[in-house]
Amino acid sequence: MARRVRGLFVFTCFAVVFGLLSFGASGVSAQQRVYSDDMSSPALGLFAQTSPDPSQYSYQYRNGQFIAQAVNTYFQGEIFSFANTPDLVNSTTAVDVGIGGADEREIYGFVGCRAGVNDEGYLFLLEPTTGRAALWRQDATGPVLMAETFVKQLVTPGVSQFNRLAIDCYDNQISAAVNGTVVLSEFDSTYGYGLSYVGIGNTGGAPDNLFGVFDNLVITDFGGGTAVVPAGFTKLPALQMAGPLSGILTEQATTITTANAGVSLVDFFATASFVAPSNMVPWDITIAFRDSSVTDEYRLTIASTGQWQLNLGTSTQIATGVVGNLLTAPGSVNTIDLLVEGANGAAALNGVDFAVLNLSASVVAGDVWIATANTGSTTQVGRVTQYSAFEVWATA
Questions:
Q1: What residue numbers bound the domain in which 331 lies?
Q2: How far apart (Å, rounded) are the C-alpha atoms in residues 278 and 275?
Q3: Is 195's pLDDT higher than 70?
Q4: Is there a single domain that holds both residue 201 and residue 281?
Q5: Same domain, 265 and 133
Q6: Contacts of 13 (CB under 8 A, 6+ apart)
Q7: How many domains does the chain have?
Q8: 3 pLDDT more than 80
Q9: Are residues 353 and 368 in the same domain?
Q10: What is the pLDDT of residue 14?
Q11: Which pTM was predicted?
């Protein structure tokens, strides 16, 4: 915890109305959405039917299934097929995977999430013959094994036999399941969003050509929304730098108590949730950023009246407005999300975007912190406010 000098909150009747930005990232509230493909209709399917490399492999919907197949018998490697959805942050991807052809030796099926522009992301594979299950991180420099196990007792082996594979990517926890049983779970914050995908691969020893059959794809988007870059931005959350942090903030008479992320960033995404206090004396919640320890930080504050303002330092007001969806009942939870890039900022409250911000006055690297009782008029000495899910992500 650290203590800061209080700022000046100027109450006005002026409200600025901004269009919705529809940005999303870890922690942004959104309704659950399900994308599904039962493979019965190529026109409605989520996978492409044209291979990006027809000389090596092909895609097709056939007989109520989706098939990814190598063109020649000696193909060695992996065939990926990416789902036609927006980039997803928190999601579960599940699909039935079968081995086609006449031989399943050294062939594996896989399912993945958060694939980026260079196909980085997370991949879960199953070798039906051996029962080997492995969770991998796909980096630009090569794959990294995160964990593996053997689950032969859960697997239905054999050509044309299906096994259901699932990968769950939620915040920095990556979990995998075989036929409904979770078999691996690891923590990794390298990749924050991307596409879901399925595929088939081999290790080079199988005499029959590589042939994967897929059915009953279900992709569930949980609470992280879709990663859509707002106007004026080019970056999105990519690497978790701090959190999730939780604790309490105790109001002081002459200073404010902060919870610091301990980072030094210019561009970032941050999110934090605050519990409305039981003491109904006016209160506020604040997220501050680009704090380089010379009292030049930005402070974005929302008061219990619904008024918000952005200050530079303790007194220079840059913008102000009113939010209509602040929850003020004791015990209710409000979440602030903030995306910052260069001279631009975008803010959301409880999943609803409420402001675009001009941050050109100070474009320096600094810490990110949260606080309450940013002003004397919103202070009750000794009052505590719980906070949780305070996270900061570097953007790329």
A1: 2-27+227-395
A2: 9
A3: yes
A4: no
A5: no
A6: none
A7: 2
A8: no
A9: yes
A10: 25
A11: 0.54
110 with 210, same domain? yes
- Distance (Å, whole) CA 194 – CA 332: 32
Tokens of 216: 């009953």
Name the DSSP class of 277.
Answer: P
User: Which residue type, as a one-letter code, is found at position 280?
Assistant: M
Q: Look at residues 221, 246, 264 and tell me which one is the last residue of a structural domain.
A: 221
The amino acid at residue 138 is: Q
For residue 30, the cross-strand partners are none
The contacts of residue 19 (CB under 8 Å, 6+ apart) are none
Quote the distance between the C-alpha of residue 383 and its chain's center. 33
Tokens of 59: 């895609």
C-alpha R_g of the chain: 25
What does the block give as tokens for 114?
């958060």
pLDDT at residue 207, as a whole number: 54
Count of CB atoms situated within 10 Å of the CB of 140: 9
Give the number of C-alpha atoms closer than 13 A to the C-alpha of residue 46, restricted to the C-beta side. 23
Q: Is the dihedral of CA 302, 303, 307, 312 positive or negative?
A: negative
Structure tokens that stand for 273 in this block: 């949730």
